[in-house]
């Protein structure tokens, strides 16, 4: 773990009579993010948010703000901070493992956030035991954890000799595909064959995240440097696509063009597009 990494929580992973003290770290390096501040255009002064009362337009200080639930149009039940605090689950310092399941049985749609776990002093051996046991059994641990007043379902899995923790959405929070009213359409055998050939051309043995760079961030960083140097930035016009230029496209023709005009057996395989960092102009390699 990097020396500048700071834990966001300290908890105990518990399964059976085994207790593992661990620190919870964010899996995202926040220093890598780029963000903007809101400024007043005429002089660059920072601006701050204010809360405005809809009824009279007056500014409301934070000390006078409370929370309410709208149970009917324009009608609210008010809750004080104390009342809401009493309703919250008590923050727990324990992640209670309830079962072990194959990781592939957990649909990624349920993943809400990822964290990294590192053993605290005295927890290295049981930590290593759980990580190795999960790796050899090809299972992940499912448990419950209460944080910031809310209960979460979590999944623990082995990762690079350690443990990663995925926070999950509850089933009731996930929208069903049935809610979207998707129109059904028939696909011909010929179209399916060409689509499978295109998939085979672009298929790789596994996903390699290092091949995909954040191109927008690269462009943004370069634009910031040009702005600092007092240079103007220009934006190139985007080329139109077949989908945007016409309302209807010929699916068979699109598939054939995607295959390089060689749809019949033994099409030449093309390597997947390598990600290019705009900041360096170099393609990443396997």
**Total beta strand runs:** 11
Order of helices and strands: EEEEEEHEEHEEEHHHH
CATH class of the domain at 9-32 and 88-173: Mainly Beta
**Structural class based on helices, strands and sheet pairing:** alpha+beta
Helical proportion, percent range: 10-25%
First-to-last CA distance: 25 Å
Order of strands in the sheet with most strands: 1-2-8-11-10-9-7
Low-confidence stretches: 242-247, 263-272, 274-286
How many alpha or pi helices? 6
Strand residue percentage? 25-35%
The biggest sheet, with number of strands, parallel, antiparallel or mixed sense and barrel status, is: 7 strands, mixed, barrel
Question: What does this entry look like structurally?
Answer:
The protein has 286 residues and is of the alpha+beta class. Among the domains are: 9-32 and 88-173, Beta Barrel (Ku70, Chain: A, Domain 2), CATH 2.40.290; 185-233 and 246-286, no CATH class. It is 21% helix and 26% strand. The strands form three sheets. Strands 1-2-8-11-10-9-7 form a seven-stranded mixed barrel. Strand 10 (150-159) and strand 11 (162-168) form a beta hairpin. Helix 3 (189-202) runs parallel beside helix 6. The chain is extended. Residues 242-247, 263-272 and 274-286 have low confidence and may be disordered.
């Amino acid at each position: 773990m990097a020396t500048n990494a700071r834990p966001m929580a300290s908890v105990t992973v518990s399964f059976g009579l085994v207790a593992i003290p661990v620190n919870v770290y964010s899996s995202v390096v926040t220093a890598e993010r780029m963000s903007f501040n809101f400024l007043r255009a005429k002089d660059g002064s920072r601006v701050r948010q204010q809360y405005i009362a809809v009824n009279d337009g007056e500014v409301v200080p934070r000390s006078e703000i409370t929370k309410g639930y709208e149970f009917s149009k324009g009608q609210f039940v008010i809750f004080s901070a104390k009342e809401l605090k009493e309703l919250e689950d008590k923050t727990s310092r324990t992640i209670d493992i309830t079962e072990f399941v194959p990781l592939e049985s957990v649909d990624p749609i349920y993943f809400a956030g990822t964290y990294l776990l590192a053993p605290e002093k005295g927890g290295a051996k049981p930590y290593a035991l759980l990580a190795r046991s999960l790796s050899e059994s090809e299972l992940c641990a499912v448990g419950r954890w209460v944080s910031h007043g809310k209960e979460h379902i979590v999944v623990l899995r082995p990762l690079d000799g350690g443990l990663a923790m995925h926070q999950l959405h509850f089933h009731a929070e996930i929208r069903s595909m049935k809610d979207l009213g998707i129109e059904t359409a028939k696909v011909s055998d010929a179209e399916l064959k060409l689509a499978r050939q295109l998939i085979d051309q672009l298929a790789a043995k596994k996903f390699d995240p290092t091949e995909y760079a954040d191109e927008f961030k690269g462009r943004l960083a370069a634009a910031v440097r040009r702005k600092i140097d007092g240079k103007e930035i220009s934006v190139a016009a985007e080329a139109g696509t077949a989908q945007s230029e016409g309302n209807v496209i010929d699916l068979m023709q699109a598939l054939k063009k995607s295959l390089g005009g060689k749809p019949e057996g033994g099409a030449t395989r093309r390597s997947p597009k390598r990600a290019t960092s705009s900041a360096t102009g170099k393609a990443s390699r396997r």
